[in-house]
TrEMBL record:
Ranges annotated as biased composition (Basic and acidic residues): 1-47
Chain segments carrying region Disordered: 1-55
Name recorded for this polypeptide: Uncharacterized protein
Top-rank lineage group of the source organism: Eukaryota
């Protein structure tokens, strides 16, 4: 009788352990599903803003009557997230849509005479905006760029002097003189894929 009771108790404990494991696995699956649903929602939110609006803006911009023979300029504020690891932050949909917008304008640039419309994608810099603060970053967390940097760079990018960057992706923090001359300029002239969204190795 004692052995039977011991066996029943062991069986009960085993069943309880199995149930706990199944419950834990179900919770993990539900958590993964919630994360996937949230990611789809973020993608639905980011896609119209980062891709569709960029396309619509460009189309509407080009449909405006030209009042002279001068060059038009499209300077797209992109993100370094399109080309490097995001450090574990939940930015998959943001990265996807910013990459897509940059690629869209890059392909349009390939089909556009820069003397008619000059197109440049650029990363505005490491600016301490509200988003980094939401992740707990502070003024002491990094060597932040000055908030005036992207505006100053955009003014230069929207000039004939920056025509050699038509269709490329650059950082506002890079030295303009180094881009304009020397090894970087030579590489830009020789390599049509340099500083562009592409698949390296093909």
């Amino acid at each position: 009788m004692a052995d039977r009771k011991g066996a029943d108790k062991l069986e009960r404990l085993l069943q309880e352990a199995i149930q706990r494991a199944e419950d834990a696995e179900r919770e993990r699956q539900e958590e993964r599903q919630r994360a996937e649903d949230a990611e789809r929602e973020r993608q639905d939110e980011h896609s119209p803003f980062n891709v569709r609006s960029t396309h619509q803006f460009r189309d509407l911009f080009e449909k405006q009557p030209r009042t002279g023979a001068g060059t038009r300029y499209i300077i797209n504020v992109s993100s370094s997230a399109i080309h490097h690891n995001t450090g574990g932050f939940p930015l998959a949909s943001y990265t996807l849509t910013k990459n897509s917008a940059a690629l869209l304008l890059q392909k349009i640039a390939d089909e556009t005479d820069p003397s008619k419309t000059q197109i440049i994608n650029f990363h505005p810099g490491s600016i301490l905006t509200l988003r980094p603060k939401e992740y707990g970053l502070t003024a002491d967390s990094a060597n932040w760029d000055h908030e005036d940097l992207p505006g100053s760079f955009a003014v230069w990018a929207a000039s004939p002097e920056a025509a050699f960057l038509h269709g490329r992706f650059v950082w506002a923090a890079w030295d303009v003189e180094e881009l304009k001359s020397g090894p970087l300029r030579e590489k830009l002239e020789k390599d049509d894929t340099f500083l562009k969204v592409t698949v390296k190795g093909i």
